[in-house]
Amino acid sequence: MFIVAIGIVLSAIGAARTAGTESPYASRRSWILGICSLGYLAVLAIVDSGPFLITSVGLVIVADAAFGGRAILVKAGRWLRRPIGAVATLVSAVVIVVGASRIDDLTTRIPGRILSLFAPNKQMAAGFEAMQHGGLIGSGIDTSPFARGVPVGESDLLPMVFAADAGSAVMAAVGVLLVGVLGVAAIRPLFRDGPWGVIGAAVGVMVLIQAAWALLANVGIVPLTGLGVPLLVVMFSALTSSAFAVGVCLGLAPGPDAVVQPLVGGRARLARTVTALRRATQVVVVAASLVLALVVPPVANATQIYMPRGQIRTLDGAVIAGTGTDGRRTYPGGRLYTEMGLVHRGGVQYAVEDAAAAQLTCGGAPSVADRILVVVRPLPCSRADVVTSIDSRVQGAAARALDGVEGAATVIDAQTGRVHALYATTDVVPDDFRGKPLAALPPRMAARQDQAALGSVFKIITAAAALIDGVDMSGAPPFEFIADGEVLRNSGDFTCPSTRIVDMLAFSCNTTAAFAGVRVGQSRMDEVARTYFGAGETIPSDIGEFAVSGIDPGTGRGALDAAQLGRTAIGQEGSRGNVLAMAVATGIVIRAVTGGPGGGMPAPRIIDGYCRGVGAFEARTFGSTVGTRPLPSGVADTILAGMRRAVSDGTARGLKADGRTVAAKTGTAEKPNEQSINSWVTIVVDRRWVITTMVHADPASASAIRVANGILGALPKEFPPARCG
Question: Record's InterPro entries (predicted)?
Answer without folding.
Answer: Beta-lactam/transpept, Beta-lactam/transpept-like, PCN-bd_Tpept
